[in-house]
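Appendix C: a fully annotated inverse folding record. The material below is reproduced so that readers can follow the format used throughout the book. The structure is listed first as tokens, followed by the designed sequence.
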């Protein structure tokens, strides 16, 4: 009997070693994760925070013995928010560093450029930091997404605000690219359900700094709700110009405008802005004790305040850890996918909704809620809006 058990354990060990040998990035005592962030370009603030959030969760896991006895090794490359550099970063991570998985890659165009490099080597694109529908559509076994698409954020939030504010004339200013178009299309879809159309639509080119003509156009149209397909500088520029000219509609931004940089850089004029969001901003003096504890832990570790991108980075690694633990000691791409396709993750301390994945379900959740800048701080002002 003892001999039988001994033989069985030898076979199990050999099977585990064989699985590791066949699966890139999985060694006997480590799992190599890769991420591409913007550490030197226009979103470097976000990229740096996401990287630190990831490092915090990796360190926590490794202090507790890793995942099924394997320590996590996180490799991060800089794309500078340039799709060409993202391809080079992906080639290095996939072919030289031999990563098991690509995790929390930032940027839409950057992900789309890097995916073919990963997929040719059976490397999963895991929970990228972008709200583009292409992160889970069309369906691909190696795609998993957690960001509610910009389209759905706006589609769900607009009817709620129209009703609350009794808005009559809905307008939009958006960036003239795929990101801005997705915000505008979400607005169009929302208005269609109410039998309405945009009163005024206006655009700007990426990198624009003057929004006076667009604001004048919306002011003369009498817009009382403006949907912003804008990121940081353009959000501040548009609202700042509007306040200066006495134009005071309700402003609604997507998750791309949901950052503490808006109120830090834009100051008092930013009060009143709404944004679609999921995770709560982790202020150091937050009322929720678990969130406050987490924010102070981050500050102690990195000597800077956390942001929502710190939370995104932390959370994507956390979901990876849960799925890798569930996949068991014989971690392969197939066993990880099998584990992910049965995952249901309860709401967390940051206020995320329940998230679930399945064989045909590659987006964790499509729910969104609203936050508003009140006295220079983001404050959650709605529950999750049911589709």
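Designed amino acids, in order:
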């Amino acid at each position: 009997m003892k001999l039988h058990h001994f033989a069985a354990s030898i076979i199990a060990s050999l099977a585990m070693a064989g699985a590791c040998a066949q699966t890139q990035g999985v060694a006997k005592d480590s799992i190599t994760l890769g991420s591409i962030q913007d550490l030197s370009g226009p979103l470097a603030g976000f990229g740096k925070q996401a990287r630190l959030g990831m490092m915090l969760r990796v360190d926590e896991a490794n202090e507790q013995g890793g995942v099924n006895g394997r320590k996590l090794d996180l490799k991060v490359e800089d794309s500078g928010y340039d799709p060409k550099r993202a391809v080079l970063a992906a080639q290095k991570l996939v072919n030289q560093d031999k990563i098991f998985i690509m995790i929390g890659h930032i940027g839409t165009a950057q992900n789309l450029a890097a995916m073919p490099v990963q997929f040719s080597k059976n490397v999963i694109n895991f929970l990228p930091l972008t709200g583009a529908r292409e992160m889970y559509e069309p369906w691909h076994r190696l795609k998993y997404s957690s960001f509610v698409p910009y389209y759905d954020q706006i589609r769900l939030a607009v009817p709620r605000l129209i009703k609350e504010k009794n808005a009559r004339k809905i307008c939009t200013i958006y960036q003239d690219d795929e990101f801005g178009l997705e915000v505008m299309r979400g607005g169009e879809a929302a208005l269609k359900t109410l039998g309405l159309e945009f009163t005024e639509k206006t655009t700007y080119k990426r990198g624009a700094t003057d929004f006076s003509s667009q604001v004048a156009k919306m002011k003369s149209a009498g817009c009382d709700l403006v949907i912003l397909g804008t990121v940081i500088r353009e959000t501040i520029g548009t609202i700042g110009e509007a306040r200066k000219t006495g134009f005071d509609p309700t402003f609604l931004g997507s998750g791309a405008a949901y950052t503490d940089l808006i109120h830090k850089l834009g100051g008092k004029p930013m009060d009143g802005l709404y944004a679609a969001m999921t995770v709560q901003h982790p202020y150091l003096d937050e009322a929720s004790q678990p969130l406050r504890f987490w924010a102070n832990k981050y500050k102690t570790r990195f000597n800077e305040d956390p942001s929502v991108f710190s939370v995104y980075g932390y959370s994507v690694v956390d979901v990876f850890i849960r799925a890798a633990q569930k996949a068991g000691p014989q971690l392969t791409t197939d066993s990880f996918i099998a584990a992910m396709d049965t995952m249901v993750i309860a709401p967390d301390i940051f206020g995320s909704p329940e998230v679930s994945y399945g064989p045909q379900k590659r987006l964790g959740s499509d729910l969104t809620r609203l936050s508003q800048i009140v006295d220079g701080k983001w404050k959650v002002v709605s529950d999750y809006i049911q589709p």
